[in-house]
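Let's practice the habit of predicting before peeking. Look at the sequence and jot down your guess about where helices and strands might fall. Then scroll down.
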Amino acid sequence: MKQYVEWGTGQMIVSKKEAEKLAEDIRNIIDGKKIDLRDNLEGRLSIIKNEVHTLANRLNEQAESLENDKRKLTDTLADISHQLKTPLTSMKMMVELLEDAPKEKTDEFILNLKQGLTQTNWLVNSLLKMAKLDSGTVLFNPTEIKTNELIELATLPLKILLDIKNQEIIKPASDIILTCDKNWTAEALTNIIKNALEHSPSGSKIVVETGKNPLSTWISVADSGNGLTNAKIKNLFNRFESSIKGTGIGLPLALKIMQEQQGDIEISNKNEGNGVIFTLKFYT
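Done guessing? Here is the structure:
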């Protein structure tokens, strides 16, 4: 004789075998096994199976997402460790060499220490700002600002780097008004200009220009480097990818800031092939 289990007040009756099978499947799902409970039949038991299947899928997706986040965090921490270890190791060597260094080498070692400290400080600050943006806690405050004022703000933190490499920033003659978050956009522009300084030879000039068209207001930064291949341009905004001469976080941070303001950054080689142009676009 078939045994049945009554659920509710006579509204749904299923066999004991079906109830035990459903309970077993749910236990297996809880243990992490992937089981398709759907039977494409009518009836309230089938509805319950479909709902449990949907819930199980969502839980699996969340678990996979958490696992991916865990892997990304592990990779990021490894990258951060590597990025910090390089300048710190170099500075430790410089300090040890300074103790017995001849006078003519002292200035060179001190200059290297300054560069190492600047790079390390820049990396730590950039990582903190990127973490703040990633957390979604940043509230952008768009206001009107003249482009030359924004460029001046962006170049202030770069004066030491400019002096070290005897470089000059050529600012645009025209002054355009754009709407953006002044401080965060200055941060983005600082990172773009810093990248240009690092990839240009000593004594070179970095040219900053501005313009406006029916689609956007823009600020471009042109360096005096060797240009980039399409493959390098493609990966330029991946975190820690472009860290040969910089920290590998400045360009991704700049792009994140622009995208949070519905803007973008475009990259192109100069027509004469000597250098790269970064263009920050603020869409109207």
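How did you do? The beta strands are 4-7, 12-15, 142-146, 168-170, 177-181, 205-212, 216-222, 264-269, 276-283.
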